Every structure is written in structure tokens, then in C-alpha cells.
Amino acid sequence: GWGCGYRTLQTICSWVRHHNLSSAAASGSHQNSSVASIFQIQEALVEMGDKPSSFVHSRQWIGSFEVCLALDHFYDVPCKILHIDKGVNISQFMPELCEHFKTVGSPVMMGGESDNSSKGIMGARMSDPALLVV
Hints:
alpha+beta; hydrolase; 5 helices; UFSP1/2_DUB_cat; 134 residues; 3-stranded antiparallel sheet; UFSP1/2/DUB catalytic domain-containing protein; 3 strands; deUFMylase activity
């Protein structure tokens, strides 16, 4: 439903803050001690020039691209987007996902191409391949 992209972003932001992975937090340049609200996320996307001013206070959703912009904006954390065609080819990306969880550990956003719903991936397993999805 509406807001799932924002909630997935907020989950990732909470993880980044909890694990002190933010370059901005490490340098002291990010003074906000809480995870950004939907309104703050919308304002930031407008401020960056990604969205028009009418986006603020709207019920327009965000996707993987906007999540990447927001993570970079709020926490100076770079992101990588992988396009996986309708999940059919997800098995070829399982090694990369498993490596991410071994080395970084943060949740991963998976956008919904056919159902338009964001999913938060919290873990992955190579043997008997599976994803832990919230």
C-alpha cells in the first residue's frame, strides 16, 4: 500500500544510524538524531531537485531511486541499484545479495515492478536459496 517505500527507507536509515555507518554522522555534520519523517524525506527530494514542490505533503510514492537519493542526502551513504526483471532472474543475484549481508549487513530495498510495493529484504541464503522479506 501507500507509504511502503518510505517505511523501507526509514528501516534502512534506522539500521545505518544504529550501526554508525553514516559518514555524515561520523563527521558530526548530521545533527538530526532521529530517522527522517515522510515529510522530511519529501522536502529533501524537492530540495535536491528530484521532485516538484507539489510533492511535499502529497501521497505520491517513492521507489528505489528516491531511496538512494535520500540515503545519500541524510547519511552520505552511497547506494547501488540492481535491475532484476520481475524476479525471474533473482537467482543470478543471490551471491551478490548474500555477500552484501555478510559484509555490510544492512536491509535492502526491493521495489515492486509488477505490484508496485516496496519490500525490505533483511537476509538471504544461498543453500536452498531464499530471501527474508518484510
